[in-house]
Amino acid sequence: MTLPAPPACLNRPYCARPNQTGGTLIAEDVREPNEHRRRLLDPDDYRPCSCLNCRGSRLHAHSYRERRIKIGGGISTEEQVRRYRCVACRAIWLVLPGFLARHLHRSWSSVQTALRGQGLAPVGRAADRETVPATTLRRWVGRLASSAQALLPPLACVCPELGCATEPLPADCSRGALVQALLRQGLLVGASALSQITGWIHRAMPGLRLL
Ligand SMILES: [Zn+2]
Fold it and tell me: Exposure check for the chain: N or C terminus, fewer CB within 10 A?
């Protein structure tokens, strides 16, 4: 059986976009808002080592952006995020803390709580599922059911354990099955499974998305 392909926006890395220079970098080790706010205080704490576009090593703190985060019931909150500009090529890089879901305007913990019926490790309260509209939840579930084929080669680069796993992944599996398999093998930590795997994917091939 051939799995459905995911929406094109999930499988379009920066390298496939001719006009892409800067973009988003994910600070995978920042797992909660207090740590993020602490790191915002010092421009060096989020400063990238080098520019992904030209490999230049001088990046200046450029500006802040407000990131809207939906918390349910039509209510949103905001977190500031830092942007840096490469001195050599002028590419702008936004550094997103690992606990925020790129493009979904939510925290990964709230996304994972909403999806807890999909075989993902439970996190948060069941009542939190109600904070995600049914149409949004259906879209995420559909994306988890689509093919993970494009994610496997980049994931293998950052997670060599995948290659020698006791439970080899099939050539084509769904995105949800991929997360579940990595959870069973202990390669992902339950409560932060989605933020962890999306950080790996983005690090290996910036722009590629799980959801
Ligand atoms: Zn650059």
Answer: N
